[in-house]
Every structure is written in structure tokens, then in C-alpha cells.
Amino acid sequence: MVPAEPADWSVHPFSGEVRDGVVWGRGAIDMKNMDAMVLAVARAWARAGVRPRRDIVVAYTADEEASAADGSGFLADRHPELFEGCTEGISESGAFTFHAGPGMSLYPIAAGERGTAWLKLTAEGRAGHGSKVNKDNAVSAVAAAVARIGAYEWPVRLTPTVRAALTEIAALHHVEADPDAPGFDVDELLGKLGPAADLVAPTVRNSSNPTMLEAGYKVNVIPGRATAHIDGRMVPGGEEEFCRTLDRLTGPGVHWEFDHREVPLQAPVDSPTFARMREAVELFDPGAHAVPYCMSGGTDAKQFSRLGITGYGFSPLKLPVGFDYQALFHGVDERVPVDALHFGVRVLDHFLRTA
Q1: Which of 54, 72, 169, 216 could pair with 300 as two cysteines, CB 3.0-4.6 Å apart?
Q2: Cα–Cα distance between 82 and 101 in angstroms, integer?
Q3: Which helix (H) or strand (E) covers residue 344, if one does?
Q4: Mean pLDDT in residue range 150-170
């Protein structure tokens, strides 16, 4: 669960208050919206006696915001029989309206995720008095490693999902894009895509952001150990390069390890499932364009992939211009328009009946 401080909010974050046609509360965007829409579809089907083309398993999981060990990880590892026969799964963070410019509405459907690589760096040194020269200073060693990691520019690594995203979004902007052309510059292309570049830019390469430092207990005492934490993300196929690069950037005297690691994912964008998701969105918002994209972070699809389930991000919402969907994840005054939920229910109903 993501905490919320009531004093910072316009309404109590756990009230679920509906005001001015909007549902307010922690999780309204991430991702109680999808929970509510799936329940609404299932309830309507039960009342009307609707039977989908094939079996649909509905799973609500805990712990996604941490390691997922007590949620989807537990289910995948300890109760795989509950998902026997499941081939595809849909979940959060996809098929929301992205206003890419005047008259251009995109619905990015997630067909990939970067892998999670939360790292712990440790340097062991010689403890001593702060007034003495100390060439074996653990703080200096870990700080230097963190500076190198933070400054490193990762090379471009375009996965099939990202290539498809670039190609489709560029075509909608009437911009030529050939990732296989000699001298292709992805950053130059992104500069021509306006706001839509934000959908792709975080996923064209690995990343490593320093987030935490821990060392010492008194200003005049040199500690014998210093640690740092890095939020790393790996593109599909980029794990080996990520590890080699960390070995080089940390350097001698600094040990690094995974605090938490989960695999990157890719899902086909030319599959019948993706085609039906695209068709369902565009049916209920004519003139909009559903496009593939890769998530910069991750979801429970990582754990369910161990069962052979292909995961897509598909929780459809039709959002008005100016509604900053991405900024509301874990943010103050998290909220979702009621009309967006009604739209999502119609899209999910159509998709799940035909999937």
C-alpha cells in the first residue's frame, strides 16, 4: 500500500469521495480504478447470465508496491494451479488517454516492462578519527561509485516493443522513423514527437538512479562501512550488459548486489490479443489511436510470467485534456473521473467478451 497524509489532501485520501464527477482517494489511479471496473463487468455478466468465449480468472493481489513476494509471487510460486490454462493477463498502466497534441489522442497499451534492479552498494574501509588522513575511507569509495553511476549515459537498446512504439507514433506525427537505418538517432527522433516522446524516452535504454546513502554516526568519526542504494531498470535483453557495466562503474573496493530483482518482459504487439485490445479502445473512442509502448517500471505481470502468462497493461480510461494521469500515481489528490471509469467498463466488457 502507498501511504497518504490526510493533511496534504483536499479530501480524506481513504474516503473514496465522489465530488464534481470525480472519485478522489489513494489508489484511484493506481489501481483501484481497474479493480472497480473488473468487478463492474463481472457483476453485470452475473446478472445477465453472460458467458465469455473462454474462462477468465480474476485475481486481486497484495504487495505489488514492494517485492510482490506476499502477493503475485506467493500465488505464482505456491498456487500455480489457480492459473492453469491461462495464457494472457491484463493489468494496470495501459490504454489511458494520452493527449499528444491538438486533435491527437493516443491510448498506449503496455506490451513490455523494464526489469527491476534495486541495488545495494557497500564499501568497507578503515574506521578512524576524522582529523587523520585516511586513504581507505569507505564514504569516499561509495560516494565515488555513486557519482560514476549517476553520471553514466547508458547506450540505446531498442526492443521490438519500443521499435513498434517509435514507428507507429512517428507515423502519426508524419515523421520518418527507421530504427534500422545507418546513423539512426533515437534522441533526435524523440525531439520531433512532442509530448508523445514521454511515452518512449524512459525505455530506450537501461537506467540507474542513486536514491539512498547511509554512513557514519558522528562528523568526526570516519566509519568503517558505507552503503548506497540504486534504483536500476533493465530493458528486455539488457540484463547482462547492466551487470557488466555495474562491475565497471563500482570499481575495486565497492561491492554491489541485487536487493531486489525482477525480469524485464516483452509481449507481442502483432498478437490477436493486442489486436482486440486496440479494436476495443478505438471502437469507443473513434478517431483515437491505440499504440504499443513499454512500461518504464513494472507490475505483477513479472511474477505471473513464471507461469507462462503473457502480460499486457490494459486498464482503459478516457481522460480529458489537461488531466495529468502520470503525475497522480502516488501523488497528492489522486483522483479519476467517473466518466473515465464508465468508458473503461464498456471497453473491458467488449474486449473480454471477444478475447
Answers
A1: 72
A2: 44
A3: helix 338-354
A4: 97
